[in-house]
Amino acid sequence: MEFSTAADELYGVEPEEFVATRARLAREAKADGDAALAKRIGGLRRPTLSAWAVNLLARSAADDLDALLDVGGRMREAWGSGGGLGDLEQRRARLVAALLRRAGDLAAGAGRPLRDQAVREVEDTLQAATVDEGIAAEVRDGRLPQPRSHTGFVPAGFALAPDAEPKPKAKPEKRAKPEAAPPEKKPERPKVSRTSAARAKRAQTLARKADEAERTLADRTERAGTARQAAEDASAEVGRLRHELERATAERDSAARRAERAEQARARAEEAAREARKAAGEARRAADRDAAR
């Protein structure tokens, strides 16, 4: 078993089957003697409904998803080179809207319609995949445990307005620029950074707790399965022993009946022998009397 194969199977099942499938795959890896793989599989987290819906797109709408991710790659190239986006943003909007409809149809077809919050999370993930190359790779793999998002409109490291960079060089008024720019940018960046950091920390804490809860649930599920199997085996053994007891009891009763009949036959034979001995004695005595005369 390879990790990628196990992960593909695991994130391809429905959410409520995830824990049981993960436990089974971990057991199979452990049975194959690969404890490290079993531990790695056991550490995979169950996807949220929105993440599961995005994973559905990776499996059932791969062509449309690739088209969106291709547009995202071209947009990142345009941001990096300082070129224009042209109609890329409009194409992205159309593809995202089409994929949202497809995700809703797929989820509803599987009996799990997406509510407004889940739809927003799917949309945020698709938008983030066009901006962040790492998220794009995660979305393409179809193994997302949680939805993704990206703060801002362009990738980290790219200028928001490429044509704004030459302005400091064109204007020599260095005093006015540093004094005016920092007060506008510095108050916002720390605020966004602190908020993002707090949210990220809370998300990590909740994800860790959810992961621990899932591992505990998987362990309890595995133990319950083992106990249930042991109970079934014991019940089968009890049934077998009960059958053996019933057969032995029947054989004992049959043997007892045969012994009783044999005893009755013996008693009759003994009585017959006694009567024969008695008759023989009488006949001998009669013969003796006749001889004496």
Summarize the structure in words.
The chain is mostly helical and 293 residues long. The chain has a domain of 118 residues. It has eleven helices and no strands. Helix 2 packs across helix 11, helix 4 packs across helix 6 and helix 5 packs antiparallel against helix 6. It is rod-shaped. It comes from Actinomadura violacea. This is Transposase.
Task: Name the features.
293 residues; mainly alpha; 11 helices; 0% strand; Transposase
List the helices and strands and how they pair.
Elements: H1 3-10, H2 18-31, H3 35-42, H4 49-60, H5 62-81, H6 88-109, H7 116-131, H8 133-141, H9 167-170, H10 176-185, H11 188-292
Helix pairs in contact: 2-3, 2-11, 4-6, 4-7, 5-6, 5-7, 6-7, 7-8
Give me a quick take on this structure.
With 293 residues, the protein is mostly helical.
The SS-based structural class is mainly alpha
| Share of residues in helices | over 70%
- The amount of beta strand, in percent, is under 5%
Number of helices: 11
Quick one: overall form?
A: rod-shaped
Question: What's the gyration radius in Å?
Answer: 43 Å
What is the rounded distance between the termini? Answer: 114 Å
Question: Regarding quaternary structure, how should these chains be classified?
Answer: single chain
Contiguous uncertain segments of 5+ residues:
156-193
Number of strands: 0
Q: Mean pLDDT, as a whole number?
A: 77
Largest sheet, if any?
Answer: none
- Taken in chain order, the helices and strands follow as HHHHHHHHHHH
Organism: Actinomadura violacea
Protein name: Transposase
Region (Disordered): 141-293
Biased composition (Basic and acidic residues): 164-191, 208-225, 239-293
